[in-house]
Specification:
- The protein is α/β, with parallel strands linked by helices.
- The protein has 6 helices and 5 strands, in the order αβαβαβαβαβα.
- α3 (about 75-85) runs parallel beside α4.
């Protein structure tokens, strides 16, 4: 990935992006600001059952320097968190509707482990974007909510706020 262009696409946005790529300059976001995020040294656990969504998220987060481990459902996310050892993860991105164990139950399970790192930021990622869904995510111990389809700039800003040193602007 050489950069990200945020929708909606405009002819001028595409022309600027191509020009920047030719001149080895960073791409800018839809608002004209350079996306100044650096997640190097951050380790993210991504719980996402949809293969395509997971692949896109891993590529995007890796592009900004994060190391990403993927779990295919909530049960696997809890297992990975536990087996990863204390302090391995800086953040969990948690889909809500997954097989075997949903995101709400997985977040509760991580919070109940009693480890020092059980209080790490957990962000819900779901197409359920009504205010009740945001409230439910917060009530189950999550720290934020990211609506799908993902707005890349919002995702990066939310992660940047959640992990120390993630936003460089």
């Amino acid at each position: 990935v050489s950069g990200v262009i945020v929708k909606p696409l405009f002819e001028s946005t595409i022309a600027d992006a191509l020009s920047n790529l030719r001149q080895n300059r960073p791409l800018s976001s839809g608002g004209g600001r350079t996306m100044g995020y650096d997640f190097h040294g951050k380790h993210i656990l991504l719980a996402e059952d949809n293969e395509l969504n997971a692949e896109i998220a891993v590529e995007l987060l890796s592009h900004f320097g994060a190391e990403v481990d993927r779990a295919a459902d909530g049960e696997e996310a809890v297992d990975r968190f536990v087996s990863g050892g204390e302090g391995r993860y800086d953040l969990v991105l948690m889909d809500i509707q997954m097989p075997r164990m949903n995101g709400y139950d997985a977040a509760r399970a991580i919070r109940s482990l009693g480890r020092a790192d059980s209080s790490l930021p957990i962000l819900a990622m779901t197409a359920d974007a009504f205010s009740e869904d945001v409230s439910r995510a917060l009530e189950t111990g999550m720290d934020g909510h990211i609506a799908k389809p993902i707005d890349i700039q919002n995702l990066l800003q939310t992660i940047g706020r959640a992990v120390k040193g993630g936003e460089t602007r």
